[in-house]
Specification:
about 400 residues; alpha/beta; Aspartate Aminotransferase, domain 2; Aspartate Aminotransferase, domain 1; 7-stranded mixed β-sheet; 5-stranded mixed β-sheet; globular; binds pyridoxal-5'-phosphate
Length: about 400
């Protein structure tokens, strides 16, 4: 391929990052090898010193992983990308690479549960403190900033309430004080939202979700300017939570269908959200593509569509919400998301079950809230499956 800026995102998703071997294979090759052989002692020395950029050992360089990194970088409009074993290892690696003891992070309260644990519980043991503030209150981010603040960490839309953080507004606050902005772009993927274009410094991914899209492998990535991803790479090379070649190969294939999947899943999610909003047993629907969403206009500016995650409040309490879950025969009862198979979860007793009832109430995770991650089934079948439970409450 020529330079990635010459092509549109659909083309990059299918072709970016591919380097054919001497066999000129059409599809991307899977290099299942832990190490690489050198032609001479001098070449080995040059590879180890970094003077020669070739492959050494798959903990830090593997051609299949490189192809995935280059393709995702092209999609995010990033200069560089490093892949990791999971989404959590991407977040861990980036904090370990960019923060030291004494540093401070400002993060949104609506973060993925394990990210909250990592920043709120694990990192303080190593002297890195995090203040959690509301996703939607830009002024609170400025107020929480200290002289030691290194990073703003946010996820938009949030899980499960789909609250939108104003990326450009938070970037303006952060950059005025020399703070880096990191966006977890898991829910939208670069197909629906490109945080780097809005001024963010780094994007992190759980590739386990939409990037794979078919529930097969774990993976993660950090994308942004090379001077920052190089720091993450140095941590990864030493500490080791890197992506396996096999998972990289699966994810490369996932990226090839990312655009059509996201568009189709998002279109189905909008239809399902509209249907839920008109349902007499549903009290409220949270979906950024609905005009009733409090940040509909911001979502319209920042994302190219509402995405595939819809949450809704049933009339009643936990018993009624569980009845809807238990009546489903098609939707998978699982907390995973981003799959072609639609999933249904009751956040208060699963993903948000470990926090206190007071924290749940503050976060708006009520007992009658359900979250659907819409896949590729026909909307009518999803509606019929949910209707069985809804009509019985
Ligand atoms: C799942 C998820 C993660 C963690 O990713 P893993 O691949 O499970 O480690 C991080 N952020 C968000 C938004 C997620 O949904």
């Amino acid at each position: 391929m020529r330079h990635s800026q010459d092509y549109s995102i659909e083309t990059l998703a299918v072709r970016a990052g591919q380097e054919r071997s001497q066999f000129n294979e059409h599809s991307e090759a899977l290099y299942l090898t832990s190490s690489f052989v050198f032609t001479s002692a001098a070449q080995a020395a040059a590879r180890f010193s970094g003077e020669d950029e070739g492959n050494v050992y798959s903990r830090f360089t593997n051609p299949t992983v490189t192809a995935f990194q280059d393709r995702l970088a092209a999609l995010e409009g990033a200069e560089a990308c490093v892949a990791t074993a999971s989404g959590m290892s991407a977040i861990l690696s980036l904090v370990m690479a960019l923060c030291s003891s004494g540093d401070h992070i400002v993060a949104s309260t609506g973060l993925f549960g394990a990210t909250q644990q990592l920043l709120g519980t694990l990192m303080p043991r190593f002297g890195i403190q995090t203040s959690f503030v509301s996703q939607t209150d830009a002024a609170a981010w400025g107020a929480a900033t200290r002289t030691q603040t290194k990073l703003f960490f946010l996820e938009t839309p949030s899980n499960p309430l789909t609250e939108i953080a104003d990326i450009a507004a938070l970037v303006a606050i952060a950059h005025a004080q020399g703070i880096l902005v990191v966006v977890d772009n898991c829910f939208c993927t670069p197909i629906l939202q490109r945080p780097l274009d809005l001024g963010a410094d780094l994007v992190v991914h759980s590739a386990t979700k939409f990037l794979d899209g078919q529930g097969r492998v774990l993976g993660g990535a950090v994308a942004g300017p090379k001077r920052l991803t190089d720091e993450v790479f140095k941590f990864l090379r030493t500490a080791g939570p890197t992506l396996s070649a096999f998972n990289a190969w699966v994810l490369l294939k996932g990226l090839e269908t990312l655009q059509i999947r996201l568009q189709a899943q998002s279109a189905r999610a909008l239809q399902l959200a509209q249907w839920l909003e008109s349902h007499p047993r549903v009290a409220r629907v949270h979906y950024p593509g609905l005009p009733s969403h409090p940040q509909f206009e911001l979502a319209r500016r920042q994302q190219s569509s509402g995405g595939a995650i819809v949450s809704f409040v049933v009339k009643g309490a936990r018993a009624e919400a569980w009845k809807v879950v238990d009546s489903c025969r098609l939707l998978s009862i699982t907390a995973n998301l981003g799959d072609t198979k639609t999933t249904l979860t009751h956040p208060a007793s699963t993903t948000h079950g470990r926090i206190t009832p007071e924290q749940r109430a503050a976060a708006g995770i009520t007992e009658n809230l359900l979250r659907v991650a819409v896949g590729l089934e026909a909307v009518v079948d999803l509606q019929n499956d949910l209707e069985t439970g809804l009509s019985s409450i």
